[in-house]
Amino acid sequence: MTTTLPPAPSPAAPTPGRAPAPTSPVGGARPGPRTFTTEVLAVLGRRLRRLRRGPGRAIGVVLNPLVSMVLLGYLFRDAITLPAGGSYVEYVFAGGAVQVGLACVGPTAVSMAMDLQGGIVDRFRSLPISRSAVPLGHTAADLLTALAALVVTTGAGLLLGWRSHTGLLPTLGGFALIAAFTYVMLWLGVLLATTLRSIETISVVAPFIVIVLPFLSSAFLSPQSMPGAIRPIAEWNPVSAVIAACRDLWGNPATAGPGYVGEHPLVVVAVTLSTLFAVCVTVSLRRFRKP
């Protein structure tokens, strides 16, 4: 008795006029939103576990704004006089809050550079996961750390005498602006890591961002009191625009100049942050995909 086997099914021919299903860079179908979210959460959990085992970087994010507020806002509160008057503690709080975002640049860059050098990124590249899940997980975990640092900074500011005078919604709007600024700074850290790829070089560049940028802005001193050559830099510094917008939202003393930045800080913040964010994300993901 002879058994006739059915012929093996031939692969379905592509439908005319229809493009083939997109594939991920590592092969296979492109993951859906649920799979992509799972991948990001996996990287996020790994990053949080590393921060728990080595909390030194997270402590540094908290200490930077606290030291600035205590040294300047408390010790020098009677020695520094604002041109338009007002409480110097309330004036300096916005500068300390912005420092939370600036202090995150270095830890994020170092962490990404360590992964790039340690081979873990090559292992991720060999897996069927989205390439963008790795930097997204890193930045999401570091954003949670930064928000916790912002809570500690706000508590210290309240103890020193900072108050918001504009109601609940504008107050929350100011903190949302700080959170958005912080997230952009996290992607700046990813850009530094994917561009420099050297922990030693990042360790030299990151302190420049944390220390120099605030002092070349309106974070601690009025731009009108600075030398003539430094004043335009401080007035057009994007950090100054973020600080000025927060002071307006919180009703705190401000030293905005008569120029466009001083009169329209929210417009300047929207343009500068969106542009910087687009550049950092685009260039970082492009460099991250390259071995």
Automatic annotation (TrEMBL):
Keywords for this protein: Antibiotic resistance, Cell membrane, Membrane, Transmembrane, Transmembrane helix, Transport
PROSITE patterns: ABC_TM2 (PS51012)
Highest taxon in the source lineage: Bacteria
Predominant subcellular localization, coarse grouping: membrane
Topology class, membrane: Multi-pass membrane protein
Subcellular location: Cell membrane; Membrane
Transmembrane stretches, start-end: 56-76, 88-113, 134-160, 172-194, 201-221, 266-285
Span list, region Disordered: 1-34
Boundaries of every ABC transmembrane type-2 domain copy: 56-291
Family (UniProt): Belongs to the ABC-2 integral membrane protein family.
Protein name as it appears in the record: Transport permease protein
Lineage, uppermost ranks: Bacteria, Bacillati, Actinomycetota, Actinomycetes, Kitasatosporales
